[in-house]
Write a structure and sequence with these properties.
The protein is an all-alpha fold. The chain contains 9 helices and no strands. Helix 7 runs antiparallel to helix 8.
Length: 262
């Protein structure tokens, strides 16, 4: 976080300096573009900073109520999420964002969103099911046998990752169509809800409660984002993707029902 803050301050200084130089050189249009890029960068920084701060608070709660070892188990579960979810998002972002921006109408946008969702599911599903089936082996390989109790919570974390994959195509629409403030508001709502539910669930269900709270808040975020984008841009999933989502859920829960492979 310290490194990110330093990077942001340097970026802010350089972009402001560049903006002043362009203004003095009478490049008004370019200066306007630079302002928009700077504004977008600031808003994206706010959006991407909310979740890390939430995780810091969650870690503090776990340590205070359950101890350092439980926090270690939590970190193991998060590790898998941090490995592949950003990878999927970043790969598809490079194509989907400019495509969404250039969509001439809602019909074109709808087609691209459904295509994005389909590709995301095809990439994420094999990764999620593989981790679920081999989670015991992966803990031994990447961590230590001391963390094998994390087997029980990794599946819950991966269910949350699946929900993130469903949300992402619609969330990118908000950013591409100048609704970044709305996306930030949704991000804050989700994180506040996650924290509030965690306070209760941690007491009621111990460490598993954190993942229950996360997944419930993510599901509500998906509903909120879907309703908003459907209302503003007439976006809705097609039957093929609905079938794919239901089949993916069935596959994930079937994989979770098998005994982990060590």
């Amino acid at each position: 976080l310290v490194f990110a803050l330093i990077t942001f301050l340097v970026f802010r200084h350089l972009t402001k300096r560049l903006l002043v130089e362009r203004v003095h050189s009478n490049a008004g249009q370019e200066a306007s573009y630079t302002k928009e890029l700077l504004k977008f960068g600031h808003l994206r920084l706010i959006q991407t900073s909310v979740y890390p701060f939430t995780i810091l608070i969650i870690r503090a709660l776990i340590i205070k109520r359950l101890g350092l070892f439980s926090n270690g188990l939590y970190e193991v579960a998060l590790a898998y999420s941090f490995m592949f979810v950003p990878l999927i998002n970043n790969i598809l972002w490079s194509y989907s964002y400019p495509t969404y921006c250039s969509a001439e109408n809602n019909n074109v946008l709808l087609k691209e969103v459904n295509q994005f969702l389909k590709i995301s599911l095809f990439i994420a599903l094999p990764i999620i099911t593989t981790i679920i089936l081999f989670r015991g082996f992966l803990i031994r390989l990447l961590f230590s046998v001391e963390f094998l109790p994390a087997i029980e919570i990794i599946t819950l974390q991966l269910i949350g990752d699946f929900l993130k994959v469903l949300i992402w195509p619609f969330n990118v629409v908000l950013m591409a169509k100048d609704r970044l403030k709305t996306a930030i508001a949704f991000e804050i709502i989700w994180n506040v809800l996650f924290l509030l539910l965690s306070l209760y669930a941690l007491k009621a269900y111990q460490l598993k409660g954190i993942f229950v709270a996360q997944n419930l808040s993510l599901f509500l975020l998906f509903i909120l984002t879907y309703i908003y984008t459907n209302n503003k841009f007439q976006l809705k999933g097609n039957r093929a993707n609905l079938f794919l989502i239901l089949a993916s859920i069935l596959i994930i829960f079937t994989a979770a029902s098998f005994k982990p492979i060590f």
